């Protein structure tokens, strides 16, 4: 199913009594990597942390989150006496696993009374605070204040530790839907944009420019809290499932994306920036031939992928770096001059790969200048 674009205009509220059919990624080539269908009898604490912060009008209780009947339910309660200084309590789940580019989706039914702020969103964190120093990228797939039963906010925030990064592409609009009924919410996050959908219909596209945000790994949050004003009654928020599909694969020389990276010869951390400023680039012993760096992807699906390497342009770089791409048809070789032009992605061609980790990119230094290694990507075609 491909997305249809639906304008954010006001139309009559659709009062659904049956959940719409589950949506799916907007194009082919995605592989399901993470999901919870909430089919058990309790939250899976090997997969999830509870949201436990105190924010706005409520404190968040783990005991407010239950699983049963194929649903995750957040009970939104009045507290007397106050709990952690608040007269209301909310809650939610935050995935222990952090994920990157791909398609995220949930189906949710929002609170029936006013004063509750329910969200499906992604940001680095464990749920103990929403203001951790590790937060940089925040992607809000769905935000709704239940005083407005059909208003949705979707967008991207750039944070700088405890401070506001100052760039917030987003859209708040009248969905034309009764969000107190079941609806499906999705976000397709790529290196250049985030596309937000409701019930499989594209509603808004936010730019995600690499020179403005880091390429974070983000945790999934399914939460509801009393906000922005004091809640006017108890209620519930419910989630039917949450799923994440991956299509493209990014490998780096450190951090979570370094799972398939290896070196031979002598390599050192460089002060020259790579594609992600939080991840240092590497350089091999200068004027030495035969140093290698290898990036080996774990592809979830066989298919055609365009392969890129991040070229680090520097006057002291290797002018004749060799890149070998091992694929189903053999090995393709490309030479890249790292001394000229600007830093950026350089294509190493489009090739067919099997699922798994048999395919790879290998850099070999030529013996002139300093070979530099940072990141590669496999983009599904």
Automatic annotation (TrEMBL):
Keywords: Signal. Residues 1-23 form the signal peptide. GO terms for molecular function: hydrolase activity, hydrolyzing O-glycosyl compounds. The keyword Transferase does not apply. Pfam families: Glyco_hydro_16 (PF00722), Golvesin_C (PF25275). InterPro entries: Beta-glucanase-like, CBD-like_Golvesin-Xly, ConA-like_dom_sf, Glycosyl_Hydrlase_16. GO terms for biological process: carbohydrate metabolic process. PANTHER family: GLYCOSYL HYDROLASE-RELATED (PTHR10963), GRAM-NEGATIVE BACTERIA-BINDING PROTEIN 1-RELATED (PTHR10963:SF60). This is GH16 domain-containing protein.
